[in-house]
Amino acid sequence: MVITAIADGITRGVETVADMATAPFSDPVIRLGVTGLSRAGKTVFITSLVANLMNRGRMPQLVAAQSGAIRSAYLQPQPDDTIPRFEYEDHLAALTSPAPHWPEGTRRISELRLSLQVQPSGLLAGLQRPRTVHLDIVDYPGEWLLDLGLLERDYATWSRETLARIEGRDEARAYLARAAATEAAGELDETAARGLADAYADYLQTARRNGWSDCTPGRFLLPGDLEGSPVLTFAPLARPETVPRRSLWREFERRYDSYKRNVIKPFFSEHFSRIDRQVVLVDVLGAIHAGPRAVEDMRRALADILSAFQPGRNSFLTRLFQGRRVERILFAATKADHLHHSQHDELTAIAEALLRDARDRADFAGAKTGAMAIAALRTTVEDRVEHEGRTLDVVRGRLADSGKQAAFYPGQLPRDPNRLLAPARDGSERWLDADYGIMRFAPAPLELRSGEGPPHIRLDRAAQFLLGDRL
């Protein structure tokens, strides 16, 4: 797998041996990676998870919380001094202020350490002192995930596949026209190269806003301090019959390889190789609303992402000789509060079907996987309304754009996920027998009692799956 190729080596082996040697004498650490595509709710998930682990009144399905085994939870300085700290306090303030609003989304990698004092269970539990379990949460932009698939593709393959995929998209017309008018075998001109890269980046920004998932390279969307550098100055082109040494094609090919070598590989070798629990957040409802092609696009993107994980059991020998493996992966369909609970089973089934291939690979490798519909922060209440002689299960909430209260019925999700996946795989432009809507709700004002975290849907079940066995 890709991660194996990146992470294995002398440095990783030395670190793993050191971890194994000191593990019996140090506090256990769970490294939880939080990943997902744009707008899936990573920042809110982490903020609400930490708040609800510190104030556990809404976590009955987390066994260690329900039984009182978790005695206390507190934030500590993170172990990685070179990584920015996740701005938990600022994000929580945004969600719980008198005028609550959504916090800014993830734009860089960050980390947070939450330490839990846990009373051991078992026959001798009363004779043992509480132990400390550290939860290190690693957050990074979902856009960077998309680059995983580039590691197994050369520039020619990536260009061919990208151009074929975006050919019929309205968002890509301007870029495709510019690329068609470019002589790829011609001598490199930096002004023309910059223009092509900017036009392609503009396409990616528009495509992401319109619900497409396959927006690679991910750093084109969040360039940071790489903006304007040659490593981000390339774009997909049709391969010419001949490729002279100083041609535009040859230089784009070199820069693409440099991007993989100097941007993608260091990031995943330094951070991904140390993760042993993973949650993958997916905005399934947003993709359904965007249409069949967006659903199929999301399925392909997730397959590329998840094929690069190194799942399996973290036994002593496995970690000693092969490094860490992701031993638990949760696929979470977010924004379940946009649906009445009567449709949550359908949402979970669709998420499972979208991820079936990747999940089967993880199960086969020995990892424990799960899928569920969640809402890290509940923004709506449920209701029923009469409409044209029918009783509809709806949700009510405050709209993010206008601030007005509204009732929302998104449409009836099918019980059989293939009703959606079949037309998506066939490339249909729209759903034939249904219309699915979407609304963007704002967080509701909260009145939290002592010991309660923010309201949610199944966040406690997600925590139990990801962490329960270690608590």
List the helices and strands and how they pair.
Layout: H1 2-7, H2 10-22, E1 29-36, H3 42-54, H4 63-66, E2 70-76, H5 88-96, E3 110-118, E4 131-139, H6 142-145, H7 155-166, H8 173-180, H9 190-209, H10 248-270, E5 277-282, H11 284-290, H12 292-306, H13 316-322, E6 328-333, H14 344-354, H15 356-364, E7 368-373, E8 380-387, E9 390-398, E10 405-408, H16 418-425, H17 459-467
Parallel strand pairs: 1-4, 1-5, 5-6, 6-7
Antiparallel strand pairs: 2-3, 3-4, 8-9, 9-10
Helix pairs in contact: 2-13, 3-5, 8-9, 11-12, 12-16
Q: In words, what does this structure look like?
A:
- The protein is of the alpha/beta class.
- It has two domains: 2-140 and 274-376 and 447-470, 3-Layer(aba) Sandwich (Rossmann fold); 146-266, no CATH class.
- It has helices spanning 2-7, 10-22, 42-54, 63-66, 88-96, 142-145, 155-166, 173-180, 190-209, 248-270, 284-290, 292-306, 316-322, 344-354, 356-364, 418-425, 459-467; strands spanning 29-36, 70-76, 110-118, 131-139, 277-282, 328-333, 368-373, 380-387, 390-398, 405-408.
- A seven-stranded mixed sheet has the order 2-3-4-1-5-6-7, sandwiched between helices. Strands 8-9-10 form a three-stranded antiparallel sheet, with no helix packed on it.
- β9 (390-398) and β10 form a beta hairpin.
- The relative contact order is 0.16.
- It comes from Oceanicola granulosus (strain ATCC BAA-861 / DSM 15982 / KCTC 12143 / HTCC2516).
- This is YcjX family protein.
- Pfam families: DUF463.
